[in-house]
Amino acid sequence: MGKNMLNATSTSKISAYAGSEPPAAQNPDVLNKKMNKNRSQSTPKKIAGPSNHNKEKNRFELTHEKEVAYLEYVEKGNKTIDLVKTFTPASLRGKGTAAILAKDALEYAVQNDLKVIPSCSYIRDSFLKNNPQYKKQILVRSKL
Questions:
Q1: Which site among 61, 62, 96, 113 is 20 to 30 Å from 47 CA-CA?
Q2: CA–CA distance from 20 to each of 8, 16, 30, 32, 54 (Å)?
């Protein structure tokens, strides 16, 4: 008998699994509920705002448990700001942190009659598409 040939024991093990799927694939809802239950117990669902406007660093900041999320901007002159970067630490992601920063920055622009260049991909591709009330402030509309 060659080395690559299956014996009767290994053939019976293979046929026992043939046509069956692992338990998670049979019922993914059960697995998802277990995963979400564990996740929701260990982390808060939403982060509370508002953010702090740090004018010295040209950014809006939100601090939670010593972690700092921020949205950086550049003053372009002519009553225009460029929202260039949003950073959210891993522990604060998926909790609405970036949305708070975006809302506060855009509200600042509205209150100060500023035009906004949305260079940050989160602002441009996600936040503004879900918050059309700020479109009047947007200077560059090419990707909206």
A1: 113
A2: 20, 8, 17, 20, 58
